[in-house]
Amino acid sequence: MIETRLDDVENIFKDLRESFNSGTTKSLSWRKKQIEQLYKMCDEQKHVFASALNDDFHRPSFETLVFDCGSIRNECTHALNEIDEWVRDKKISDAFAFAMLDKYIHPEPLGIALIIGSWNYPYLVTLSPLVGAIAAGNCVILKPSELAPKSAAIMAAMVERYLDPSCVRVVLGGADHVQVLLKGDINKVFYTGSTAVGKIIMKAAAEKMIPVTLECGGKNPVYIADDANMEICAKRIAWGKAINCGQTCLAPDYILCSKTTENRIVPEIIKAWRQFYTDTPFNSESYCHIINNRHFERVKKLINQNKVVHGGETDSENNYIAPTIMTDVTENDDIMREEIFGPILPFITVNNEEEAIKFMNNRDKSLALYVFSSTKSLAQRIINSTSAGSTCVNDVIFQIAPPSLPFGGVGASGLGSYHGKYSFDTFSHQRTVVYAPNWTEPILSKRNPPYNPTITGLMEKLTKVHRNWFPMPRFNCFSMMFTVLALAVGISMTMNRMKDDKSKV
Amino acid sequence: MIETSIDSIPNIFQDLRASFNAGKTKSLAWRKKQLEQLFKMCDEQKEVFASAAYADFHRPTAETLLFDCGVIRNECIHVLNHIDEWARDESRSDSLAYATMDKYIHPEPFGICLIIGAWNYPFLLTLSPLVGAIAAGNCVVLKPSELAPNSAAITATMVERYLDPSCIRVVLGAVDQTQTLLKGDINHIFYTGSTSVGKLIMKAAAEKMVPVILECGGKSPVYIADDANIAVTAKRIAWGKTINCGQTCVAPDYILCSKTTESRLIPEIVKAWQSFYTDNPSNSDSYCHIVNDRHFERVKRLIDSTKVVYGGQTDAKQNFIEPTIMTNVNGNDKVMQEEIFGPILPIVTVNNENEAIEFINARPKPLALYVFTSNNNLAKTIINSTSSGSTCVNDVIFQIAPPCLPFGGVGESGIGNYHGKNSFDAFSHSRSVAYSPTWAERLIAKRNPPYTKKKTASLESLTKGHRNWLPIPRLGFWFWAFAALATAIATRVITRGIKNNIWDL
């Protein structure tokens, strides 16, 4: 793979800093143009992207077209729809005490943002944050993962073609390049990848107090209650586990359920996989492979053949691992020690949701937590008793689709979030701006020394915030006006009726 | 000063973790009770707090009553007014594509939060974040600064008396205790203090990917335009520079203005100081002292007596430094190499706002940036050409008073923010929750393999986001409800009028 020369990195920073200082990225029309270009790129080049990724690890075109290019285009569209609102100064209203201050929040770009991408959804996790970084007015350096070399190379070529190279650049390379970049003139780091490397990134960022967003992973548990709709549950889990060959940060990692449920659901999952990939997934164009030999060996070692009830076949020449189910798994098995990131589905037996909650809470907080049940209150109870980056009930992975929901981890699964407005916010600084009028000086000067107890007492009273005497939730002005108008209409109608003697008063 | 023994710290963590797991802090009633107690504490004990701070560094009672206790009480009230709203699950609405999913954001506490306080506003900077941590449902370990030992000790005593010791604890000590705490079972760190220590905190936090909020500092510049109202400007700057003897993170650090303005400004500032503290500030009970010998020596070294035009007197026995003005200061002087955190006011000459902007942008981003002018456009230009944590026009420090405005730094002045809802958010994880309906299976099943070109295209158009065809901003439900009702009423009145020939047509 062609790598960017380490000596060139310094010049890249110089160019980007100059562009940023000249104000290019602050222009709203520049930002919109770039996002439109990004949309175009993920539209016109989608097949080129898909074949590069197919070369990298046998990734089916559908998955690249829908999960990568489609999602990036949607992120662009959403940003273009909302960006005028996001960049606007946001006026804030407050209690009476501060009403005389003209105050607002002014969003500002951070400067140069470094986006370190991952290999599993290489376009999505590199270019989707890019939408937020551009929308917020930053210059950007992209560092796609070297583990998907063809995708990285095509991204570099296309970004240079479609986007403004004076403000958006791509650096190709490995760990050495990342280290050089982290020491460079950056104001924000956005990282997608493993928890172990995420910690190293945060440590490096601490040297200059650079804010970070870390999108990492973990073992995403699935609790299947006995009252779940087995057929649908099986299909959805089968889908979530096998797309991208299980190499999805949000993939369902392991299952917690009773033996009864396991006996009902395992055949359904097998049926679903047969439908998806036929009896020999090896021959299916819809089935992905493991990214490289090292990960192939890693995942293969997790398979305990004694516990396999379906699948288990591997082919090291093609880095192929069949969709596999293991049962009677315990927390001491190898497969429960790390995030699987592969097509192995372990089943752990629990008798009820209390045991499941206890099991999940004993482990690191995961990126996602899934519940399958037809009882809403059961789902609520599990949600309220656990913590995770996000949760979906009766499906997997899909909670990241709506742009209004933040996508991020908690604890070891990550720090910060993005998607939609959250992307914009993660690459912005919300600067408070207050205008203090001169005419308030007579009141304001009461704060001046010399202090005496009388003035102090007066100031305490003047600046005091009060409990809401009326426990009304915050109504906005239009709901107030609507209520007033509706009341006026109601009263006038009633009075008319009284006048017409239609009701005996 | 009494220190908490290092050996007892693991037990503290054990106790807090047990309380958190038992769900004590999740109860809304518990949180409100703690906040009410915190309010009571900062009300009933305010004089006791004030005398502790006075004993520590001659802090005037009024400053502790108003800037510490009063502000903490206001924060408690503000949070009590809103906590029901904040703790509630927040429904999210989205475009039609995701309307079928029931989705909301579920705020969750992190677990155990460590709050490391600073000495300059010893109660405010330790207890104000505590409000947010409790409101969000966390257990808390407070580590007040050892540089204000009496304040730290009284904080520990009172917290034990007023708040729930099974969930909130105070650890007294210095670097050793802090290092032990950082390695403990914590899920969040909130730090107020210097940038250099902030970086060490973030590095330590990276070991376990613990999220951090760092409230640091910097040199907060003040630009005074020639058209500023000099009398008011001088009074406000004089006040901001000498409260707490200049030991305020958002104090105006240095001034940028023209020679003309400088010659008009200095007499006014001197006049203000004399009215605040008389000719002899060392005798004034309204004037604070430097916190300890080390900082006294540090600040004293910054004074270049050849550039002093007012003040300059010091008294090592009392750690007293009088309000001082230096002129003809340039970027290389000692006083411009670090945050002053003392009552020295350097004035750097610039000819116009462009020179000021250049000077400011050549330095690290400050916690606050101030502009004094009667021309709002000039203020806007400066705001749009610079970056800082927050900004106030025509006053100093006051931008942190309204609880609805975020307070935090950017770049080396800090990461994250707090106050009001921002405090609640700072100590919460916003967990996305989505409910995927089972009746939508027909639609959802389109995502399943085997993939075909036709399926791909169909799914691409199904999931496609669309540009808003009508560029109306998001006006909200109540606006449309009001508009609909108003239109209906108007129509009825008009048509009735026409029917009854009321209008002269």
Protein described:
The complex is a heterodimer of chains A (505) and B (505). Chain A has three domains: 25-216 and 421-430, Aldehyde Dehydrogenase, Chain A, domain 1, CATH 3.40.605.10; 221-408, Aldehyde Dehydrogenase, Chain A, domain 2; 443-504, no CATH class. Helices cover 44% and strands 16% of the residues of chain A. Chain A is built from 17 helices and 20 strands. Chain A has a seven-stranded mixed β-sheet, sandwiched between helices. Chain A has a six-stranded mixed β-sheet with strand order 5-4-3-6-7-18, with helices on both faces. Chain A starts with 5 loop residues before the first helix and ends in a 6-residue tail after the last helix. The mean pLDDT of chain A is 93. Chain B is α/β, with parallel strands linked by helices and 505 residues long. The relative contact order of chain B is 0.12. The mean pLDDT of chain B is 94. Classes of the chains: A alpha/beta (505), B alpha/beta (505). At the A-B interface, helix 4, strand 2, helix 8, helix 9 and helix 10 of A face helix 4, strand 2, helix 8, helix 9 and helix 10 of B.
